[in-house]
Each structure stands twice: as C-alpha cells, then as structure tokens.
Amino acid sequence: MTPYEQQKGRARRSPLDLASMRARVRRLTGDRRAVVLGAIIVAVALVIWLAMARSAAPPQAGRFRGMGPTPVAIATVDNGDVPVERSALGTVTPLATVTLRAQIAGRLVQVGFSEGQAVQAGDLLAQVDPRPYQFALDQSKGQLERDAAQLSNAEIDLQRYQTLVKQDSIQRQVLDTQVALVRQLKGTVQSDQANVDTAALNLNYTRIVAPVPGRVGLRQVDVGNYVTPGDANGVVVLTQTKPITVVFTLPEDDLPVLMPRLRSGAQLPVIAMDRSGKTKLGEGVVSAVDSQIDQTSGTVRIKAQFANDDETLFPNQFVNVKVIVDTRKDVPVISAAAVQRGAPGTFVWLVNEDKTVTARPVTLGVTSGDRIAVEQGLQKGDRIVIDGADRVKEGAPVLLPGETPPNFVPGQGNGAGGRQRREGGAPGAQNRGAPGSPPPLPAPGAQGPNATAPGAQTPTAQPAESGAPQQPGAERRRRRDGTPPADGSAAPASPAPAPAAPSGNRPQQ
C-alpha cells in the first residue's frame, strides 16, 4: 500500500477510533509529564550531591587554592626600646610678645626697621622728635647750676657764722638761720637734679628700641604721625621666637607617671608635629608644669621649650605634641601588621621549623607608631607572618620569601590555570574523559548543542530488534512520514486528519 492510500485509509476511520486515539494521547501526555518531573528530581539530587561533596573536601586558602604552600612575608622578632608616649594638642607660645608704644608724646620722625625683620635687643626701631625734650633737659640743668651756686655761697656764710659765734661776736639766732638756709638750698639742688634726670629720661624715650631679640611684625604707624603713650596698637609688635615654647594639656591620670620623672631631674623629650602628624617641626624638653588642675576639663597645662633655630615653630600655631614620659627597654618588638584579632583574642601567626604556621596568642604592651612591644607570647628570634596572614590557617604550610614553589616549571604558568593549559584544557574547565572526573554541570538556563526546546520531546533511536517496543516519539515520527513498521505489520489507525493531496507527481489510481 502506498503512503497516499494509507493516508486515505486514516481519513475513513470511525469516530470510535478517534475517541480511542484521544485517550491514548492523553495517556502519553501524562507519561511525558511524569518523565519531565522525574528528570527534574534527578537533576536536583545531583546538584545537592555535588554541593555536599565539595563542602566535605578540605578547605584551602583563598586564591592560592590547589597551589601547595601559601606564599607569605615574614619578620623576625627582635628586642628593642619602645618609648611610652602621650599625645596632645598644643599651641606655640613665644617667651615674650612686646607691643612697642611711645612712652612720651611727639611726632614720629624715623622708623628704623623693615617689616618682618629679625632684630636684637637694643636695636633702634623708631625715633620721636627729641628737640622739645632736649630743651627741657637743658633748662633743668641751668636751674640746677643756679641753685647749686646759691648753696655753695650759703655754706661759706655758715662757716663764717660758726666762727663768729665761737668768738661771741654775733647772736646765736643768726647762725641758726644760716643753717636752715643751707639745708633749704640743698633740697632745691636735689630737686633740680631730679628734674635734670627726668628730662634726660624723656629724651631717651624718644628712641624706641627693641627690649628683647626677636622678629618685628607689621608697622602700625607711619612716619609723621603724632604718637602718644595711650595708642592701643603702638608702633609695632615684637615677638621672641628663639627660643620658643609650646603649651599643651595632659589628663590628670598621667601625672603619677610624669611628676616622679620630673622630680628626679629627668629631661622629658617633647616632639612637635604639624597638623597632619607627618612632619616633625622640632624637639624640646618639658620646662614647667602648672600648679593646679583645670576642674572643667580634668587636665593640667604643661609647657615645653624648643630651641627653634630654624624657626619652624610659629607663634600661635597649633601643633600635635608627643611627650615621651618613659621608655620600655629591651623588650620584644613586632610590627603592627603582624597582629591579628579573632576568637583566640590577639594573636600572631608563628612560623614553625617545618614551615607551617601556628596561631600564637600574645599580650601587647605600649605602641610607638608601627612598633608594638610584646609583654608575653613571643621571644627574640621567633619568625612571624606580616603579610599574607589572611590566606593561612592553623597548621598550613607556607612558602617563605626567596623559596621556589613546588612543581615550578620555568616559562610556564604554575597555577591552576597554567596547569590546565599545559594539559590542553581551558582554565577552570575539566578535560573530558579524565579518569574519575564527573561530567561538567551545565549552567542554569544554558543550552548545549544537543539541547531541546522546553516542552519538546527528545527523539530516541529505533530498537535493534523488530519485536522491541517502539518509543512514542518514533511512533509519531513514523506516522507523520507514512513509513511502515520495521516488522512489516500494518500501520495502526491514527486519529490525525488526512493531509492535503500533495501537488506535483501524484500517483495514478
């Protein structure tokens, strides 16, 4: 029977055959759903099994997984001196700040300095018109000469009167009057001498000189102005910068450590840093401690003196201060990078003789920058990890600096990716057919070259034996193509509608 005749026979089937065919289709659809559900269950079970197998494998560290010993950087513990420091915020305070004002009234006729100039004690800075004061001095001296001459004449007369009284030639009253006159003239001469000194002092005040060495600021008054002692701004401000002091505060709890050292005569070093704390501005010593504690803040004021030869410390500048109150001598010292914190507390990774690491709990002492004193747990000569501590674990082997990693091949990658490339595989992929290696899992949502669309049935191969049951997919494909069964039996009835008559070469009836 030709395929065309088979199709015509299918079209003439009874309604009963169509009903039985629909029931069979429903049965096949239910079987397909069961197959899909079973496949999903098997896939989920496989994923869970692989996850459990991976979690049961011994964990390895970080990105060096599977590469053997973990490379780390180490340091050897050594003994040293660690200063006990106290930090504070201080203000640079000059030893002397002088506002130079005129001590007498007059016109300013000369300025003897440049703004910002460094001056020495006694240098002339300004000059007030001295002529009125010079004239006053000359007048006082003239008055003194006149009164001194009168005193001299009175003293001579007194000597005559004393002789005449002894000869009983004059009355005693005349002598007493002369004695009083001499005393009066002596007082006048003494007053005149004071007037001379006052005039000389006023004349000296016309010269404004530097009382201390230092640096002058900006000029406050110009030449030609009338200056008086009541001027608030004065002529210029002079600040002593060599030496200079820094005033800072420390908590009252530090006094039991600080004061015994000062009473013993120790010179406590003080380091002044800039605002960022990175640049050192100068070194000095503690010079004084205030006599009382500030009740509002619970701190005590301390003054330190600095030579300031390079003038890096500027008056009223805010600086960071470090006071070295004591020094811990000959103690184990480690870097701050080696300190780890976890469940055991504070610990370091100690490198053993067999090049494995052990977590060693330590008790830390004082800290100075990046250096930390160790009170307990380490001794001189111990080797500790300072870099790579996040990639090691208890008992893990480590690769020390300068050592060659195992299985090292010059010129080739020696990690996991390089090893797979040498074996012919892509990095991160497994070679197919490797003994004992499980097949790779497909990524979620990805489709391989042989994957089928969702809801489609996967075609199955025909059985080799004629009596073997045929798969539903093969049966449907055979019915669609009109191919007779392999055993030569007649094709079963199909509920499918008859296809349209093919065009072209139609077989003759």
CATH architecture designation of the largest domain: Beta Barrel
What top-tier CATH class of the largest domain fits best? Mainly Beta
Strand order of the main beta sheet, please? 3-12-15-14-13-16
Whole-number radius of gyration? Answer: 56 Å
The average pLDDT is 79
Q: Count of DSSP helices?
A: 7
Class of secondary structure makeup:
alpha+beta
Largest sheet: 6 strands, antiparallel, barrel
Q: Which series of helices and strands comes N to C?
A: HHEEEEEEEHHEEEEEHEEEEEEEEEEEHH
Number of domains: 3
Low-confidence segments: 59-65, 415-471, 486-509
Summarize the amount of helix as a percent range: 25-40%
Q: What name does CATH use for the topology of the largest domain?
A: Elongation Factor Tu (Ef-tu), domain 3
**Could you tell me the number of beta strands?**
23
Would you identify the CATH H-level superfamily of the largest domain?
A: Efflux pump adaptor protein, beta barrel domain
Query: Which of globular, elongated, flat, extended, rod-shaped describes the shape?
Result: elongated
Structural write-up:
This protein folds into 3 domains: 1-69 and 468-498, no CATH class; 71-95 and 240-396, Elongation Factor Tu (Ef-tu), domain 3; 97-237, RNA polymerase II/Efflux pump adaptor protein, barrel-sandwich hybrid domain (OB fold (Dihydrolipoamide Acetyltransferase, E2P)). 29% of the residues lie in helices and 27% in strands. It is built from 7 helices and 23 strands. The strands form 6 sheets. Strands 3-12-15-14-13-16 form a 6-stranded antiparallel beta barrel. α3 (131-166) runs antiparallel to α4 (172-205).
